[in-house]
Amino acid sequence: MRMTPQRQLVLDAVRELGHATPEQICRHVQRTAPTVNITTIYRTLDLLDRLGLVRHTHLGHGAPNYSVDPHEHVHLVCHRCGRVEEVPRELLDPLRGTLAERRGFELDATHLALSGTCRDCLKEPE
């Protein structure tokens, strides 16, 4: 793969933004290169993901979030406020063992987000 200037801009944007959607990455890149469009961003993210340079996670409905960091954690996404917390993947080890034993299924928790309601939102009336 050749690292074109546009690809480098996308990779740099992911590094700078942390967890970011393609739209957020596009806005960031367009500050430097206004002619780069969202299609280029999606294609570049797909390529970088296949090469292992970025990783994606689906944090709920809508576009995935991209990061350069290894996903050694699970995302907890609040339905009400949208807060995203990270917890260690090891919390899912009992589930991983149960799925392997009962279903012969190997859980990949690197792209996993669990949705629910966060502690703060549970304290507030709806």
TrEMBL record:
Binds 1 zinc ion per subunit. GO terms for biological process: negative regulation of DNA-templated transcription; regulation of secondary metabolite biosynthetic process. One of its GO terms (molecular function) is zinc ion binding. Its cofactor is Zn(2+). It comes from the Bacteria. Zn(2+) binds at C78, C81, C118, C121. Pfam families: FUR. Belongs to the Fur family. This is Transcriptional repressor. The lineage of its organism: Bacteria, Bacillati, Actinomycetota, Actinomycetes, Pseudonocardiales.
